[in-house]
Amino acid sequence: MPHDHGHHGHGAHKFDPQNLARLDSPGRRASFPPAAYLAAIAPRPGLRLADLGCGTGYFTFPVLDAVAGEGTFFAVDTSPEMLAALGERLRAHPHGARVQPVQSRESAVPLPDGCVDAVVLGALFHELEDRAAFLAEVRRLLAPGGRVLVADWDRRPGQEGEAEHGPPYEHRVPREETEAALGAAGFEAVQAHAGYRDAYLLSARRG
After folding, report:
1. Tens digits of residue pLDDT in 8-47
2. What's the pTM?
């Protein structure tokens, strides 16, 4: 996690850690602009955030910087290589000590129930082996009224083959399908946020 390419069983498409540079490329920043993400999450000092599929911290660092480290941050990934690369970045960051790297299994995150106010899934949803089980784990991690933010590559009708940026269209999950999965998992107030290109940013609240 989080990842844009590769293949790993059961139809899920995992990112190859050898392509780490893609996780903070200009093309990715154009599709997933940090300003739009920050506007949607509206971080305040004291926020408790879990970035699931954190990779090298693309979705962690903007929030960390926005609150000047005043919060609780869990950077969660299944890949030791990703967490090692993230650790190097954290050691060089003025607020890096505020972030706790966590290695997990996909739908079994070793954190307590209700421990965070926000969970972010950045370019991760299209990789999941079992979306329902994963969203149930997200709900478990969130405090009542907490929010999940899902940022992922979109697929529109008729789009096929390779894309200019990100995974092939066949690997992507259309926005409407992700919205439906959030609703089916018991999330409320599903909302689409503006500012992404060839991708979508959704938020939803744990009831």
Report:
1. 333 345 545 555 555 556 767 888 999 999 999 999 999 9
2. 0.87
**Beta-carbon-side half-sphere exposure of residue 155 (alpha carbons within 13 Å):** 19
Taking CA atoms, 45 is separated from 68, 72, 207, in Å, by: 8, 9, 23
Contact 207, 190 (CB under 8 A): no
Would you tell me how many other CB atoms lie within 10 Å of the CB of residue 105?
Answer: 9
| 85 vs 103: CA distance, rounded Å | 13
Biggest alpha carbon–alpha carbon distance for the chain: 46
End-to-end CA distance of the chain: 26
Tell me if residue 196 falls in helix, strand or coil.
coil
Q: What are phi and psi of 206, to 5 degrees?
A: -75, 125
User: Residue 187 in contact with residue 172, Cβ under 8 Å?
Assistant: no
Q: Which two tokens stand for residue 144?
A: 């009542």
